[in-house]
Design brief:
about 240 residues; alpha/beta; Rossmann fold; Helicase, Ruva Protein, domain 3; 2 domains; 10 helices; 5 strands
């Protein structure tokens, strides 16, 4: 047989279809039943569920990235009929229309792209119309560096409810839930390893479980602590 003549095995490998790892969209659910409760978020959740019996119509929900602000805001929006808008889009928005339902979520008011005049106008308009507004941010509104003095004064008056970073128990519960959503079997050793190696936030855990799932599919392997060690040992 010539050296250039392919073997039977080579022909079979070339003819065999290549298995692709599909990037399936495992969308994050913001439903109330999918919110995991713990000491870090119990006060914020209690406030959200107290609506419309709030201490103020305008409230700020603050906490670190991945602490659950958007999930709580979505729970409240579903209950109140609130529209949701990113703070950086306020300057391009029709503010009366945004408040049309009498409730509004404004996310990330600590964005560097904040239109201060639009936010100032929104706060005044919400007060005039008796609308409920939930603001989210990583930083406390009174600490924001804004140039409009009257806006700064209004931000200082906002009642603040704070989310803390999730504790280990909550992160472990989230890993188990996300794995179950993806039909992955995980054991305690794997869960503990991941909690101690990845970013300690809801966002970090979501990313880690997605990475494990995709790598297991690519390698045709189960999701195990050994696989997690290969992926996250350098983190």
């Amino acid at each position: 047989m010539s050296e250039r003549t392919p073997t039977v095995e080579a022909l079979e490998r070339a003819a065999a279809p290549r298995q692709l790892v599909l990037a399936l969209d495992h969308a994050i659910s913001y439903a109330r039943e999918d919110f995991l409760e713990g000491p870090s978020n119990e006060k914020a959740l209690a406030l959200i569920e107290r609506w419309p019996d709030w201490p103020s119509r305008l409230i700020a929900l603050i906490g670190p990235e991945g602490a659950g602000k958007s999930h709580l805001a979505a729970i409240w929006a579903a209950a109140s009929g609130a529209r949701v808008i990113a703070a950086k889009r306020l300057g391009d928005s029709d503010l009366p229309s945004a408040l049309a339902t009498g409730a509004l979520v404004v996310e990330d008011i600590d964005t560097p792209d904040l239109d201060e005049r639009a936010l100032f106008h929104l706060i005044n308009l919400a007060r005039e119309e008796g609308a409920d507004v939930l603001f989210t941010a990583r930083l406390s509104p009174p600490s924001l560096n804004v140039g409009i003095r009257d806006l700064q004064s209004r931000l200082r008056m906002l009642p603040v409810i704070e989310l803390e970073a999730p504790d280990d128990a909550l992160l472990r519960a989230l890993i188990v839930k996300l794995a179950a959503d993806r039909q992955l079997a995980v054991d305690e050793a794997l869960v503990n390893y991941v909690v101690n190696r990845v970013e300690r936030s809801f966002t970090g855990v979501h990313r880690a479980v997605a990475q494990l799932d995709e790598e297991a599919l690519r390698r045709h392997r189960p999701v195990t602590r050994a696989l997690a060690a290969e992926l996250f040992r350098a983190t």
